[in-house]
Amino acid sequence: MNTTIAIGADHAGFHYKEAIKKYLQSQGYQVQDFGTQSEDSVDYPDFAHPLAEAIEKGTYERGILICGTGNGVAITANKHPSVRAGLCWNKEVAQLIRQHNDANVLCMPARFVAQEEAYLIADTFLNTDFEGGRHARRVNKMMC
User: Fold this and answer.
1) Catalytic residue from among 67, 80, 88, 107
2) Peptide bond into 36 cis (omega under 30)
3) Alpha-carbon 56 to chain mean position
4) Range of the domain at 128
5) pLDDT averaged over every residue in the chain
6) DSSP character for 3?
7) What does the alpha-carbon distance between residue 105 and residue 95 come to, in Å, rounded to a whole number?
8) Does the reported pTM lie above 0.90?
9) Cα angle, residue 142 at apex, residues 110 and 125 outer, rounded to 5°
10) pLDDT digits (tens, 9 = 90+) for 8-25
11) How does residue 143 score in pLDDT terms, banded at 50, 70 and 90?
């Protein structure tokens, strides 16, 4: 896997984005930050769309998006044809979205996940492989 990870957040996810970015850098990843750069109120599509476009173009293999519930960024990212964004609130779900759905964007709810759990979720997402097999058939059916 490419060691450069795309990351983005809205104002609700800003602090988690910053913490996860530092954590990933300490693990040897390069991190491309798609914003936001403060807690000032912003619209999450302004950050989710550019990150998803970069995944779609193949500039980055995987991305992480964070907002208050994780749903807004997931819905936005999934508008892009080759993006498979999954909402995760624990490491088990992060493992399954990789193994079964070949998710390439992790979406986290900053308001509902402890920061230490967010690190575990990110690690799991980045270090779990797609199982393929019967899951590949299903992933192919997702694509329009």
Assistant:
1) 67
2) yes
3) 13
4) 4-142
5) 93
6) S
7) 13
8) yes
9) 35
10) 999 999 999 999 999 999
11) confident
Q: Does 67 participate in catalysis according to the annotation? A: yes
Q: Which residue has the tokens 């809205």?
A: 10
The position carrying tokens 């450069």 is 4
Catalytic residue among 11, 15, 49, 100: 100
Does an H or E element contain 46, and which?
Answer: helix 45-57
- Specify the pLDDT at position 53: 98
Amino acid at 92: E
Length of the chain: 144
Sole residue written with tokens 């983005």: 8
CA separation for the pair 10, 101 (Å, rounded): 25
> For 33-83, what is each residue's pLDDT tens digit?
999 999 999 999 999 999 999 999 999 999 999 999 999 999 999 999 999
Q: Residue 20: how many CB atoms within 10 A of its CB? A: 25
Strand order across the 105-109 sheet:
30-33, 4-9, 63-67, 105-109, 85-87
CB 72 within 8 A of CB 16: no
Give the count of domains, the chain: 1
Asked if pLDDT for residue 104 goes beyond 60, the answer is yes
Read off the CATH number of the domain in which 8 is found: 3.40.1400.10
